[in-house]
Amino acid sequence: MDRTDALGSIKDMAARCSNWGRWGEDDVLGTLNLITAGHRVQAAGLVSTGEVISLAQAFDTNGPQNGWRRRTNPVHTMTDTGTEAEFGDQGFPHGFGGADDVIAMPLQCSTQWDGLGHIFDHGRAWNGRRAGSVVTSEGDQVTGIETAADQIVGRGVLLDVGRHFQPELGAEHPELPDGFAITPEHLDAVAAAQGVEVRDGDILLVRTGQYGRTRRDGWGHYAGGPAPGLSFTTAPWLHERDIAAVATDTWGFEVRPNEFDDAFQPLHQIVIPNMGLYIGEMWNLEALGQRCAELNRYDFLLSAPPLPVTGAVGSPVNPVAIL
Description:
Elements: H1 6-17, H2 37-44, E1 52-54, E2 75-80, H3 82-86, E3 100-104, E4 112-114, H4 131-134, E5 135-136, E6 139-140, E7 153-160, H5 161-164, H6 166-169, E8 181-182, H7 184-194, E9 203-207, H8 210-217, E10 229-230, H9 235-240, E11 245-248, H10 266-275, E12 278-281, H11 286-295, E13 299-303, E14 314-316, E15 320-322
Parallel strand pairs: 7-9, 8-10, 9-11, 11-12
Antiparallel strand pairs: 1-15, 2-3, 4-12, 4-14, 5-6, 7-13, 13-15
């Protein structure tokens, strides 16, 4: 990585980490191809207690969004309530009543997946396709999020970087400071300390602790502001280890401010359109991090399928870790 040459660094890294053509010219799944039936059978064998931990934050108006690029928090509206039922205003016979509701929200306003049609590199989408031939006003015509509806179930691995580096950083809470760039060396050190092996086909979760800090201190600039996150230099690490998908507890997955002064989310630009990697953001990893530390185990069955919204480039998700 040459910090003085963002364009050159991005171009070189894209070539180094490209998976274009690896699963055929018609592929729509990218690295999700790495989660095989055999991987899922092995992951199911990790379930020992049956304990389930949700990794989603709440979907409500008290969310992190501040309107940037028209992203708002969910708006939940009741269209029928108990009041109408009490007064018999619903038109049903014999005392029958009920409640109904509707929600309006951007698909990437809370715990979510970035799909393969979300980010482009020089006008190219995943597998080298023209961006304009993939995502149109009708949505993602090729790699819409619905293609992954039955894919993202497998072995989850938590690397709790925030907890591991807490003593070194002298923090009261197990979390990284904003702007902390997580390097391959950090990831390897945490895996070794936790005694967990990162394998091909894994769904990798990286806990920084930033989400926990926002729940304690308020959202602040969580959405789009400074944050700990993965360094641009982790792209080859993710590529060489054949990670199937990766998620963090931050708004944008990668370290912010970004490591190039004149780039925007350069790691996204590598891993989504070139590597074909699904990215999860704004995952709540607090309870899972605490439980994994208590049990001294960091792998589990993870189920995190997106909503099959036809043509969507991202999706809300309620991921669950099953211990």
